[in-house]
Amino acid sequence: ANLEAGVSTDKVTAMIRRESDHYTQRNPTSQRFAREAASHWHNGVPMHWMLDWSTPFPLFVADASGSTLTDVDGHKYDDFCLGDTGSMFGHSPAPVAAAIAEQARHGLTYMLPTEDVVEVGKLLTAKFGLPYWQVATTATDANRFVIRWCRGITKRNKILVFHGCYHGSCDDTFVRLKDGKPIHRPGLIGQVYDLTTHTKVVEFNDLPALETALKDRDVACVITEPALTNIGMVLPQPGYLEGLRQLTRKYGTLLVIDETHTISTGYGGYTRTHRLEPDFLTIGKPIAGGIPCSVYGCTAEMAAKMKEAETASGPGYSGMGTTLSANAMALKAMRANLEQVMTLAAYEHMLPLSERLARGIEAEIRKRNVPWHVSNVGARAEFVCAPERPRNGTEAQAAMHHKVELAIHLYLLNRGIIIAPFHNMTLVCPATTAAQVDHLIASVGACIDELQN
Ligand code: PMP
Predict the structure, then answer these.
(1) Which NCBIfam families match (predicted)?
(2) Suppose 338 and one of 123, 223, 299, 449 were both cysteines; which one would form an S-S bond, judging by CB atoms 3.0 to 4.6 Å apart?
(3) What fold characterizes domain 94-341?
């Protein structure tokens, strides 16, 4: 029989067909809503990513709380996707829900600061270590603005990204490698100017390639996640992040660490856990418990240089900020989240449970001898349908088997389990239980049984 990723391609095809039919039968209300919505929404959804689940039609949600989601047909799900990190600390954490209700009676946005601003500044510095902060609305925005600051500070035009990176819909980062050459990320719509003019791209975990790219001293900043989490999962090899910091310092390039996903690592994110020394740190998605909000922090040295850049550019428009950024509601939610939700105690629950999840799925894989593996950064675990841990974006891309993954996703969904749609990512939140984790582990095992010859 033909095999893909160590499982039967015929059985994968059969599973996709069977589970798609099963999904359709199970979800009549979602199907009806999808049909009705198609009259007024482009492709039937308010945001086209909602189609990326590859289900016959989108699952419509009725309710979500903690680690559990309920659809409009009344099925309950163990949610390991958690809004692809936006709800990494659980759906509607009680302190955030209370803060939102409280602020709702006092106005939502005034383009003026509130008392919460004083407290949130202290909380961000206490949690992440960097002394100065700004708020934006999405991780995309935080990254865009930081890239602009880095160019303003260094007066260099170029930035550098790693092949397979994702930092949001931030134009400058849409560059990939193909046969050693920079190209536009495939699929971009309406891209009329050449992004490779100002963005260099090299493979992650390759210090010599990085040095070659930085040597001309024309790179304002390197922006990266400490482990690539948007192309499966690529972990840094021992010494790599230290080398990255040394080389960026050597060539006057600033280092931007995007913690949006790797906040899963532990309290204060990967940066604090592994004592990284970024010039700028960005984080969005879960920072205000699911209310649109992001932040970027910087060192005192960078803050001083931002002032110089402001003086140098003179009066006018900075090209940064959006009207609703740092609104009163976002600050209130962020304060509650930082004070009461993203706590040490939360991580003390999440980390061992994610470890249980990762080792549990690993054991199911080993028992059945499929050539797969599991990686995790703290509360974020990913099972990959390939034998070797990828060292870079190219290897990670080659390790993706979309059809196999689709079969698994549909199988799990029909059995009350949601994992991230784009790859096999699972998140554990403070409300996740051992029983939910064990249900996932057993279901992945049962799914592999069905896919094997
Ligand atoms: N940075 C990273 C590392 C991300 O994974 C993402 C989203 N997946 C973003 C930034 C962008 O987040 P947003 O879509 O909320 O702007």
Answers:
(1) PRK07046.1
(2) 123
(3) Aspartate Aminotransferase; domain 2 (3.40.640)
171-217 tens-digit pLDDT: 999 999 999 999 999 999 999 999 999 999 999 999 999 999 999 99
Residue 316 CA from chain centroid, whole number: 34
Lining ligand 1 with CB less than 6 A are: 138-140, 166-168, 225, 230, 258, 260-261, 284-285
Closest to 427 in 3D by CA, of 415, 417, 442: 417
Tokens describing residue 99: 């803060």
Q: Is the pLDDT of residue 358 over 90?
A: yes
Atom number in ligand 1 closest to CA 168? 11
Q: What is the mean pLDDT of residues 392-398?
A: 97
CA distances from 103 to 117, 332, 429 (A): 14, 7, 25
Q: What is the token pair recorded at 124?
A: 């961000």
Task: Return the best residue to mutate from 166, 171, 204 for the ligand 1 pocket (most ligand atoms within 8 A of CB).
Answer: 166
Task: State the closest ligand 1 atom to the C-alpha of 85, by its place in the atom list counted from 1.
Answer: 8
User: How far away, in angstroms, is 367 Cα from ligand 1 center?
Assistant: 35
Positions of CATH 3.40.640.10 in the chain: 94-341
Average pLDDT of the chain, as a whole number: 97
- Measuring from atom 1 of ligand 1, which residue has the nearest CA? 167
The answer to whether residues 202 and 160 touch, using CB atoms and an 8 Å cutoff, is yes
Tokens describing residue 135: 């708020």
Other beta carbons within 10 angstroms of residue 356's beta carbon come to 16
Instruction: Classify each residue of 242-257 as buried b or exposed e, where b means 16 or more C-beta atoms within 10 Å of its C-beta.
Output: ebbbebbeebebbbbb
Q: For ligand 1, atom 8, which residue shows the shortest CA distance?
A: 168
String of b and e for 9-37 (b: at least 16 CB within 10 Å)?
bebbeebbeebbeebeebbeebbebbeeb
Level-2 CATH architecture, domain 3-79+343-451: Alpha-Beta Complex (3.90)
- For CATH 3.90.1150.10, list the domain ranges present in the chain: 3-79+343-451
Q: How far is the CA of 220 from the centre of ligand 1 (A)?
A: 21
Q: What is the mean pLDDT of residues 265-294?
A: 98
HEC-encoded secondary structure of 304-352: HHHHHHHHHHCCCCCCCCCCCCCCHHHHHHHHHHHHHHCCHHHHHHHHH
- Determine the distance separating the centroid of ligand 1 and the alpha carbon of 353, expressed in angstroms: 24
Position 453: which residue type? N
Which DSSP state fits 234?
B
- Displacement of CA 447 from its chain's centroid (Å): 26
Hey, what amino acid is at 27?
A: N
